[in-house]
Specification:
By secondary structure, the chain is mainly alpha-helical. The chain contains eleven helices and no strands. Helix 6 packs antiparallel against helix 7, helix 8 runs antiparallel to helix 11 and helix 10 runs antiparallel to helix 11.
Amino acid sequence: MLDHAALSALALSLRVAAIATALVALAGIPAGYLLGRRRFPGRELLDAAITLPLVLPPTVVGYYLILLLGRNGLLGGPLHRWTGWSVMFTWEAAVVASFVVALPFMIKTSRAAVEAVDPMFVDASRTLGHSELWTALRVTLPLARRGIAAGAILAFARAMGEFGATLMLAGNIPGRTSTMPLAIYGAVAGGEWGHAHALVALFTGISALALFGANWLVRGAA
C-alpha cells in the first residue's frame, strides 16, 4: 500500500527527475551537438570524461561529488563559509546527483542523433548562406529531435532510479531527501514488505513506460 511517506517519496522523485532532466537537456544537447559536429583536439577524451559516470560505481560518483560539494569540498567549502548553506543532505543534492549520472545518456544519444543527420541538408543550409547557429537550430536539431527526445526520456528514467550517489550526497531523510529508490531500500531494511512491493511495482511501471517511449521514438527516427 502507498502511504503518505511513499507518496512523498514518489513526488520527490518526480520533482528531482524533472529538474535534473531539464538541466541535463540544457547541458547535454549542446554538448552532444558539439561532439557530433565539430572536430577538435581532445574531442574523444572530452567525450570519455563526460560519460565516465556511466561506468563508475554510483558510490564513487557520490564520493567525488562530496569532495567537490561537501562542506569542506572544493566548491562547497567556500560556499558554506560565505553563505552558511551547504547542498549536502538537501533535496537539491539529489538533483545534482541525478544530473551527473543522467547527463551521459543525454550526450550519447544527442551525439548519435546529430551524427545521423544527413550532411547534405547541413551543407545545403550553409550553401544558402545561413550561419552555423541558424543551421543548428533550424536544420540539424529539428531533424535529430526524436533521438534527442529519446535521450531525454532515458535521462529522466536514470534520474528516477538514481540511488548510490544520492544516498551519499543527500542522505535518506524521510520527507526531505528520501526518493523512491531510497524509500524502497528503507522499506526492505525495515521489513515493510508491503510498502516495498507497492513501490517496486510502481517504479517498474514508470521505468517500463519510459523505455517504451524511448524505443518508440528511436524506431520513429530510424
